[in-house]
Amino acid sequence: MSRKSALLALTAIWVWQVPVASAQDEPADEGGPEAAAEMDEDGDIVVYGTRLKGQLVIDQPPLAEYDEADIAAFGANSIADVIAAIAPATDSGARGGRGGGRPVFLINGIRVSSWREFRSYPPESVAKVEVFPEEVAQRFGYSPDQRVVNIVLKPNFQALTAEVEYEQPEDGGYSRNEQELTWLRIGEKGRLNLNLDVEDRSLLTEAERGLTTPGAEDQAQFRSLVSDTMAVQLEANYARAVIESGTSFSLNGTVNYGESLSLSGLATDGVTVLERRGESDSYSAGLTVNQPFGAWNATFTSDNTYANSQTEIDRNDASGFDTARSRTYTTVNKATLNGFPLQLPAGELSTTLDLGFDWKRIESEDTRADEDFGLTRRRLNAGLTVAAPIARRGGPLGAIGDVTLVATGGVEDLSDFGTLANWSLGANWSPFDNLNLSATRIWREVAPSLTNLGSPLIEELNATVFDYRTGDTVLATLVTGGNPNLAAETQADWKFGANWGLPFWDDARLNVDYGINRSRDVTSTPAFSSAFEEAFPDRVTRDAAGDLLAIDRRPLTLYETRSRILSFGFNVRGQIGKEPERSERRGGPPQGGGEDAARRGGPGGGSGGGGFDPARMEAIRVAFCKVPEGETPDLSQIPEQFRTRLLDENGNPDPEKIAAARQRFCGAEAEQRGERFAAMRAAICADPPKLDGLPEQMLARLKGEDGEIDPAKLAALRERMCSAQGGAQEGEQGQRRGRGGMMRMFGGGNSQDTRPRYFLSLNHNITLENEVLLSQTGPLFDQLNGFVLGSGAIPRHSARLEGGIFWEGYGLRLSGNYVGDAVVRGGDFPGSSDLFFDDLATFDIRLFANLGEVFETEDGWMKDLRLAFLIDNVFDARRRITDETGEVPAAYDPLRIDPTGRYLGIDIRKAF
């Protein structure tokens, strides 16, 4: 038998059994895109497979995952847009907003220095995106308050993309434009990315919305609703891998410059326009180094930034302007060591050790202050995370399912706050394959940020404020800045979660989180309300007549806060309609065994509709078998999905994997396995089948309960073994599960499936409790009932939606936000009034067309050209806020709260 025939046999799609992966290997995906079939000593055909390189291998399943086709359906221009499209899945609702909003990011399963390192990458460079719950962050040296997003990049990619955007409100008044140029190259040894982004937005005044402010009716044209801004960003990213040592590193450099201008009316002379002018620039550099040490893996990240800002504020008496300057120096460094030091009965013990060094300094100057202000913080931290498998299906205590305990402990020393500690203990239980339950207890001490401690004092003159005491809209001074007297916060939380893969809906997951948050000595930036004035009367300045003059909104310390949040998430992706018949996909009649197979040149042979591509297989055989042993074959001749299986975690050729592939495809054992497979296939596909020569184990699988050959099982086996079409069906079923198939890799697969593709991500949060206690003995402020000390009214319900559909080059993406109704109490003063906030639902639509695909052209100017139209706030919805009489106070005029309304835009993107 020729080596070419042996290779055909080895790459057969039929999956008779899948061996259990060893503890050191990644789990096998049946029929996956990187699978390779071979025959064991018992005559059974087995298929070995791996996940995409860079996918996470952990106990907890992802909350959501998106493959290459899903990402294409987003119509995104960058990875930043992709993250925005899956925002409902990445939201940490049950942690009460303790996280910074943005999740923890990994690239190919490895920590990165910062978001800057990859945000501008084009979405076409992404093979897969996985979203994991907050507890997974602990395994990478982070605290469990943000979800984890793992982005798996393609091993080979190159593109230059240019993008131009123009946007403005339907009512006009101002506009925004942006130009962006991005180049990315991902190769076998590394990647390089360059990005230039320029953005400009014009000014919008009260006069352009027909608004007036009580006490300044003639100043509408000198009061801004939207600031005039301009920003420029230049970014460079470089990553490299050293094949010999397994070391990989990445570098990032970013430069930002921005300007802003806002108007605050007229000075006391009635002539001079009061301006607030801002200018800022920042310089950032990041480094990531990853190094394997045997069974351990070490990662070091460093993120360094210098930021400088200057604000000029015109004086109300028209005597000139005051200047507030701020300079910030930051370096954040973390090293982690991951490994599996101990084999337990139920699996390996996972260990993560993290060490960190941070340093930050803020310097502020203000011409209104007597002296300059400066704060410095040095932070040393260390932590240990241990994940211990307690039970595994098919192993110890397997009857109860998979159970893993995760414990963390850490300590940090701050130069300005001393020693702080943290710990957590969690359990993950999967009683069934599609259900995961978790419970986590989190306790930690947190110091207030240097920004809250040391920001420069800034006074915003003539700000429009609603005075709850009088029910009037007035002009007052808002004071913002830092507070050096803040205390360290102590957090004690519970989080319970359930993640269920719906058995009746492919690729659909429902997750529910319940969080109980308790904090002591909480840093809060307050909003003006009757409750705030009652609790902190010295922060509100009034004249002798009781008229409001100024509000001090600098951060303060609250004795205790309590909250409980229930969060629901639903994520699904798929295709609409019935899958086309195989004959439609192949352009020919269904194919089977027997005489049909003979007309095609034998079982599974011939090119008349078979799924195997002999030319590609011969290219693989040549690539592996014609190159001297020890040298790296030309992997460019190998299909991409199979080539990915031969690369290490850094995207470089792995010598051990290449050697194993050579042995499997070129060695004498490959010849023997191929001959055994061919003989077995000939026996099964004969008419009638010749079963006497089959291995005993295979005969046992073909028998029914009565011990006789089951005709249905035999027919199914003949369909798989004797028809290339049957193999294609098996591969495509795996493809629908998001795993791909070998038939597609070698020229077959569902290439003509033109069904519409959709995705939907929905998150809904219910706030069950939100209270503030000012001291051990009270008073207690129920913020859900309107006694608000923090920022703004607090609704019980909020939701976020992202969904879309993509079909033959056309796409639609729908984004939705919902905020429930809420109330802010006005107090018991004569003339005071409660404020009632109606609920609000807004929807944004993005329509796009890939013109090259629409017009079926792969050449010319339309190739890789996308045209998109956006409509934000489609229904021009604005929140309505009324007092007790049903009137809308001037400070809460819907046009003042949201001067933009319905927003229109056009985006043109071209890839070269």
Descriptors:
disordered N terminus; five-stranded mixed beta sheet; alpha+beta; 18 helices; Ferric Hydroxamate Uptake Protein, Chain A, domain 1; Maltoporin, Chain A; 3 domains; 39 strands; about 900 residues
CATH C-level name of the largest domain: Mainly Beta
User: What is Rg?
Assistant: 32 Å
Q: Considering DSSP H and I runs of 4 or more, what fraction of the residues is helical?
A: 10-25%
Distance between the termini: 46 Å
Q: How would you describe this structure to a colleague?
A:
The chain is α+β, with helices and mostly antiparallel strands and 912 residues long. The protein has 3 domains: 3-51 and 597-722, no CATH class; 64-153, TonB-dependent receptor, plug domain (Ferric Hydroxamate Uptake Protein, Chain A, domain 1, Beta Complex); 157-573 and 757-911, Beta Barrel (Maltoporin, Chain A). Helices cover 15% and strands 44% of the residues. It contains 18 helices and 39 strands. The strands form 6 sheets. It has a 22-stranded antiparallel barrel. The chain has a 5-stranded mixed beta sheet with strand order 3-6-7-4-5. A hairpin with a 6-residue loop joins strand 18 (347-366) and strand 19 (373-391). Helix 1 (3-10) crosses helix 9 (614-625), helix 1 crosses helix 12 (668-685) and helix 14 packs across helix 15 (724-736). The longest helix has 18 residues, at 668-685. The model is unreliable at 1-50, 583-614 and 724-751 (pLDDT under 50).
